[in-house]
Amino acid sequence: MSSTLLKRRKLSTIFANQCILFTKIKTPQNPCFQNPRIQNPFRVLRVSQFSTKFPEYEMPSVTWGVVQGKKEKLVNRVKICDYLKGLGIIPDELENLELPSTVEVMEQRVSFLQKLGLTVDDINEYPLMLGCSMRKNMIPVLSYLEKIGIQKSKLGEFVKNYPQALHASVVVELMPVVKFLRGLDVEKQDLDYVLMKYPELLGFKLEGTMSTSVAYLVCIGVNPRDIGPMVTQYPYFLGMRVGTMIKPLVDYLVSLGLPIKILARMLEKRAYILGYDLEETVKPNVDCLVSFGIQRELLALVIAQYPTIIGLPLKAKMSSQQYFFNLKLKIDPEGFARVVEKMPQVISLNQHVILKPVEFLLGRGIPSGDVAKMVVKCPQLVACRVELMKNSYYFFKSQMGRPMKELVEFPEYFTYSLESRIKPRYERLQSKGIRSSLNWFLNCSDQRFEERLQGDYIESESLGPSFCMGGKLELPGSEIVSDEEDESDDDEVLYKRTVSL
């Protein structure tokens, strides 16, 4: 019996000593006091009661509900909403958003956004930006944007255009997109231009639309090294779906007879073509060209020469130019169609520019009917500079002494450089005592001209380069080129001869 009582006394003594140890309060001299042998699982509660005067600054995520009860949170929310309403900001969309604990914090956020250049109307466009912490969201995101090249003065404009960026994680979301753009050969100094132009890129997933659109373009023949310049010129195609936007447009243009390789070269230089709406713009414009007399088999040539034509308000432009050509140049609608086939850029030329070379020719005594024939045969006349035409005409009359009829038959004379082609070649002809037509000694390459001078006969005259969809580009004397060489670069020759990008 006595031994049992003795054991009970020992146990009670041990428990009493442990209670004394664990109820000791943390002091400045020993702020982390604990039992070296056994940790009390309830010690945290006791220490937290005496840790600091303002525990909410220490662990805001844990003590938010402890520091502010439901009543206090509701009161502060009402105060913040009243403050925002006083500024003219509508807080309705902030109803389900966690707001800061005090009005002062909200004042700092509003002030920070206003210093960036945002107005109350801008904030009302996307009031959720007020839920972003300055320390955790705004400052890190804006600092990173400034680091990659966006000027500090333009940060406000960036946030105005894409405020959702303030919610993004710099490491998880922003940095991978920037790295992806650099991997596409977008120059570092162009990053700010690309992102200012299309800031929504920062919200795209790498494995989504951006990757598939790039892969498809490379698949149809676009040079991978040209993707970067394309992004710089027109970054919006990175957000286009291949199946619903890019591929249908490519398929339609190919169906018109445009070779896929030429289309790829066009996209490399004019990526904005991808932004033309197929149903609303491209197809109606193609139908418009046909309705104005453009031959269907030449549609591809017209588009290859002037790709922008499929995205213009075409009907209005064509109607205006057709009326002008008929009224001022005496060219009928059929002749106007031939002009557009040879030089589709004419539909965008200013009418005052067109009139200047025409008036120059009329002033030289050429009948209006002949001037009309010259323009239909060589539409490039209407884009020539009058000063250069005057010099060429003076040389033609004073040095060559040829009849005006030759100019009417070969209006292309005015499109050649006087100093680099007309004078040197004419002097070579004079030295050899050869007299030929303008077409014979001007409308050929330097190599062919030398061959003609060394020949024992004058070959028959032929037309210049011709374009036939579905076949090869045939040049005068092309029969001397071997089939292997000709077939190897058909598309490249076709592109160089017919597309002026």
TrEMBL record:
GO terms for cellular component: chloroplast. It is found in: Plastid, Chloroplast. Residues 481-492 have a biased composition (Acidic residues). This is Transcription termination factor MTERF4, chloroplastic. PANTHER family: CGI-12 PROTEIN-RELATED (PTHR13068), EXPRESSED PROTEIN (PTHR13068:SF24). Residues 479-501 are annotated as: Disordered. One of its GO terms (molecular function) is nucleic acid binding. Belongs to the mTERF family.
